[in-house]
Amino acid sequence: MTSSQESKKQELPPTAWAVLGLLSFPGERTGYELKKWADSSLRFFYWSPAISQIYAELRRLEELGYAASARSGPEEARAKRRYAITDAGRGALAGWAADTTEAGPPVLKHGLLLRIWLGHLAEPERLRAMVGEHLERTRGELSAVREAMEHASGVPEWTFPALALRWSERQHLAELELANALLTDLDGLGQAPEDQGRQAGGDAPTPG
């Protein structure tokens, strides 16, 4: 590996490692197939890259020698480029996966909570409706997680993805519990308007 390649290896973002991770399971896959798999697995606990980002990462991984691709033959109506991990890629991925110092803390960006934070600018009923919509969406996501868990069940190569999906099931169940508690909190605000008035003025409700 040249010094330029070594430098690029060190600069790989987590998404590149995630795409390489998708390739680490048996079989060759097209970029479209990788996207479908990310949508039914990675997005439940990390995120699902756009198809354009997947192809960008595949090009980068090929340049580093971590992935290789080949076009399909004339037996297929439409030519497809399928990707596979290389021995060098598997070795690099194993090293990255074992390096716990690179894991970093989880990042939470909760769009609903941002709107709740700005609840003084919204109608209470609208806030409750948003929480209700979030509950319905989360129930749908939970069903999708369980469907993916069933698909992975009993497949030896997917033992560890199944563990990640099980964690995601628990996370969605916790999210449902938190959202229901939030509805209770919102209902409680409506019972004590005088308390809201006392909080309207003064400094920001944070120390410092």
Task: Characterize the structure shown.
There is one protein chain. This protein is mainly α and 208 residues long. Helix content is 61%, strand content 5%. It contains nine helices and two strands. The protein has a two-stranded antiparallel ribbon. Helix 7 runs antiparallel to helix 8. About 3% of the residues have low confidence.
SSE layout and pairings?
Blueprint: H1 3-10, H2 14-23, H3 31-39, H4 51-64, E1 67-71, E2 81-85, H5 87-98, H6 111-117, H7 124-152, H8 159-189, H9 193-199
Antiparallel strand pairs: 1-2
> In angstroms, what separates the terminal alpha carbons?
51 Å
Binned, the helix content reads 55-70%
CA radius of gyration is: 23 Å
Give the oligomeric state: single chain
Largest sheet geometry: 2 strands, antiparallel
Name the helix and strand elements from N-terminus to C-terminus, one letter apiece: HHHHEEHHHHH
Instruction: Please work out how many helical segments DSSP would assign.
Output: 9
Task: Please report which band the strand proportion falls in: under 5%, 5-15%, 15-25%, 25-35%, 35-45% or over 45%.
Answer: under 5%
Tell me the structural class. mainly alpha
Calculate the mean pLDDT score and round it: 87
In short:
The protein contains 9 helices and 2 strands. The chain is mainly α.
Q: What are the main properties of this structure?
A:
208 residues; 5% strand; elongated; 61% helix; two-stranded antiparallel ribbon; mainly alpha
